[in-house]
């Protein structure tokens, strides 16, 4: 999958505080869940939704970021935020 430079730049930056929507997931309960990212670990995002906070596995979802109108497979995001900046370096 080829990622455009502006999307790489977005993904290389801090994702905490960004709005996110789960476009697809192995867990059907998570599909359609949306909110803002509150915390990030190696394998998970903590999402603040209208129903409270949910800890969601990164690699089992396709994440849609409405601010840039872009979806990304969670397998690409499955790393620490410090390492992601190196991974998506333009």
Class derived from helix and strand content: alpha+beta
Enumerate the spans where pLDDT stays under 50 for 5 or more consecutive residues.
none
Q: Number of folding domains? A: 1
Q: Largest beta sheet, briefly?
A: 6 strands, antiparallel
In percent, how much strand structure appears in the residues?
Answer: 35-45%
Described by its quaternary structure, the protein is: single chain
Strand order of the largest sheet: 4-3-2-1-5-6
Gross CATH architecture: Roll
Radius of gyration: 12 Å
Could you tell me the mean pLDDT?
91
CATH superfamily: Ribonuclease P/MRP, subunit p29
Name the helix and strand elements from N-terminus to C-terminus, one letter apiece: HEEEEEEHH
**What proportion of the residues is helical, as a percent range?**
10-25%
Task: Tell me the distance between the termini.
Answer: 15 Å
Q: Total strand count, please? A: 6
CATH class: Mainly Beta
CATH fold name: SH3 type barrels
Q: What does the overall shape look like?
A: globular
**What is the helix tally?**
3
What are the defining features of this structure?
alpha+beta, SH3 type barrels, 6 strands, globular
Task: Walk me through the structure.
This protein has about 90 residues and is of the alpha+beta class. The protein is built from three helices and six strands; from the N terminus they run αββββββαα. A six-stranded antiparallel β-sheet has the order 4-3-2-1-5-6. A hairpin with an 8-residue loop joins strand 1 (about 20-25) and strand 2. The two termini are about 15 Å apart.
């Amino acid at each position: 999958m080829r990622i455009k430079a502006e999307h790489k730049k977005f993904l290389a930056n801090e994702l905490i505080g960004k709005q996110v929507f789960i476009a697809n997931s192995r867990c059907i309960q998570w599909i359609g869940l949306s909110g803002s990212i509150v915390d990030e670990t190696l394998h998970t995002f903590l999402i603040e939704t209208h129903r409270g906070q949910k800890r969601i596995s990164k690699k089992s979802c396709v994440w849609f970021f409405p601010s840039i109108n872009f979806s990304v497979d969670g397998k690409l995001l499955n790393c620490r935020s410090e390492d992601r900046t190196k991974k998506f370096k333009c």
